[in-house]
Amino acid sequence: MNNLFYNTMKSLRMSNWTPKGLLVALAAGLLLAACSCSADAPKSIEAPKLTDASQIDLPLLKYLPTDEDNRLIDKAIERYKVQCGQRFGVTLPVEDHYIDPAIPQRRYGLINRDEVEKYGYDLPPVPGQQKNNKEGDAISPKQALEDEVRVGKKPDGSRSTLKDAKGNPLPEGGCAQEAWDRVRGEVPFDYEDFPLRLMDEAMDLTEADPRHIEAEKDWSACMRKAGHEFEHVYESGDSVRKKDFETQRTMALLEVDCAQEANYPGRAMAIDIEYQRKLIKENEAGLRDALDKKNKLVANAKKALK
């Protein structure tokens, strides 16, 4: 199997399945090919029991924004966006965005059985998510103007020609881009990439560890009792991806029950933590820089909200 494809699919399986997760996964597949990080795996491990994804606690998360940080940053962006819209005579609505959890909910496969009972392999619906207009639906002139000011493009996709009272054109990318740039300041757009790459690297090392392989074997043995032959945890979901929901849900419940029987999530996390701690020691300078950038971004957001 192509290594880049394998690393990409593996990273997606262990992430929250966001568009950014896809980009990080693709980058990880390329970067890990050049990685020479290795270590002798410890012989034993003390594994916690994970029954809820909120229990996931990883050392590298320190270098990434928390849920509270992301909410703060989002509020600051909304404030600047509204201010920008006012320059162009438009009152942009304050959007209450759903913030993806900082904790990677599916890093070790399915954990939350109550969610699996309701949604199978699907993620729970986003709280308060607004439905977008369907393609072909008419939008009001007011909404069309708001959209143009927000994203900097006319309904036909061409760049906006709107100008403010002083004759200044609408910034490229609209008020949303201007707001993000103001909050970001000198913090680069890719400030999260380094710790995220190390998260993927730790997962790669974890999956190659003999103790992780043993944990998956225990999970596989449980699945075999139900008549399924899988080597890796992510294979069960892949096997029913094109099936109807009830078939998917049945497989998802079996996967999560076997994961709990083998304590796969807890064992995987314990190994993951070991490798993350090692990577932190090996990459102190780069992570310190990432942490400084994260703290700067949060400080900028707090300043905007004063």
Question: How does this model look, in words?
Answer:
- The chain is mainly alpha-helical and 306 residues long.
- It has one domain (3-32, 52-123, 138-304).
- The protein has helices spanning 3-13, 19-31, 67-87, 113-119, 141-151, 174-184, 193-208, 210-225, 234-239, 245-262, 264-282, 284-304.
- The chain is globular.
Short structural description:
With 306 residues, the chain is mainly alpha-helical. It is built from twelve helices and no strands. It starts with a helix and ends with a helix.
Gap from first CA to last CA = 53 Å
| Spans of at least 5 consecutive residues with low confidence | 1-39
How much of the sequence is in beta strands?
under 5%
The helix-and-strand class reads mainly alpha
Main sheet makeup: none
Summed over residues and divided by their number, the pLDDT gives a mean of 87
> Helix count, per DSSP?
12
Helix content: 55-70%
Structure summary, number of beta strands: 0
Number of domains: 1
* Rg (CA only): 23 Å
Overall 3D form = globular
- Report the order of strands and helices: HHHHHHHHHHHH
